[in-house]
Amino acid sequence: MGLSMVPVIELRGSIFLGAGLGLPWVETFVAAVIGNMIPVPFIILLGRQILKLLKKIPLTMKLGVWLEEKALAKSDKIRKYSFWGLVLFVGIPLPGTGAWTGALIACLLRLRLNYALPAIFIGVLAAGFIVSGVAYGFLGFLSFLA
């Protein structure tokens, strides 16, 4: 669960780790989803203030600018497709996507928490199923669902 809260690694890395350690997929999936969602409301609510603070401190200024530019560069699809754009952005497990980036984009686009949180949650669930299918093998994964 803790590994899922770490940016970049998030749910994708923690599910592969769970599979590699031989942990049952259901427990791994649930822990990864919960862990990935814990930072999301805080990012949505406090992200702008944190970026503003990062950009004021000389040591972290470049990081703050880079994070903001990276998130805004990926926001076009979310602006265009709204709720489902955010779901797809978070749910398709590609590099640079995920709950952290989705939450930061939602924050920068000033999306309300009650709008962004369900979209990110659905995306995290979708990514979790996709990554679990890959990590645990689709046949074993699908036989458990049947």
TrEMBL record:
Entry keyword Transit peptide: no
Source species, domain of life: Bacteria
Keyword terms: Membrane, Transmembrane, Transmembrane helix
Chain segments annotated as transmembrane: 29-47, 83-111, 117-145
InterPro entries: Sm_multidrug_ex (IPR009577)
Protein name from the UniProt record: Small multi-drug export protein
Protein species of origin: Feifania hominis
